[in-house]
Amino acid sequence: MPATDKKVIEDLKAAFAGESQANRKYLAFAAKAETEKMPYAAKIFRAAAEAETIHAHSHLKLLNGILSTAENLQEAIGGETFEFTKMYPEMIEDAKKAGDKGSERGFSLANEAEKVHAELFKKAAANPSQAAPKVFVCKVCGHVAEGEVPDVCPICGSKHQVYFEID
């Protein structure tokens, strides 16, 4: 049953954000441990990341944040659109003002990828039951390609070898 108390709802939102961030952080830590040839540490990081996902999903359910696929697609379109129309443009400007070229590039690449994500969610919303094509993601910028891997990423310019297929 979804939460109704205002304070509990705020707590659930904070817990969802924290668990979601922990998941992503632990997956990054696992990848680093793999590159350092530390398989036990990598496995423990991945296990904890999965546990954090379980927690985050539980909190999101209590927030009534998982609805029908049609509603979830509209939520995703809105979120991605906010990111590329407001959030990232402001962050890009902040990084420019600070002279932080690395953050400016990271924000700019993400901004361009979010535009593609929004379009793909719109396509899915128009026909959510269609057969799924092969889908690939660029490890550098997050560009998503359907069907085939491009020779060069249209966002970051990386070669096709950086793409991985989504199951």
SSE blueprint:
Elements: H1 6-35, H2 39-62, H3 69-98, H4 101-126, E1 135-138, E2 144-146, E3 163-166
Antiparallel strand pairs: 1-2, 1-3
Fold and architecture overview:
The protein has 167 residues and is mainly alpha-helical. The protein folds into 3 domains: 57 residues, Ferritin; 60 residues, Ferritin, CATH 1.20.1260; 37 residues, Rubrerythrin, domain 2. The chain contains 4 helices and 3 strands; from the N terminus they run ααααβββ. A 3-stranded antiparallel β-sheet has the order 2-1-3. The longest helix has 30 residues. The protein starts with 5 loop residues before the first helix and ends with a strand.
What is the architecture of the largest domain at the second tier of CATH? Up-down Bundle
- The low-pLDDT segments are none
Number of separate helices: 4
The share of residues in extended strands comes to 5-15%
The coarse overall form would be globular
- State the name of the first-level CATH class of the largest domain: Mainly Alpha
Cα distance, first to last residue?
32 Å
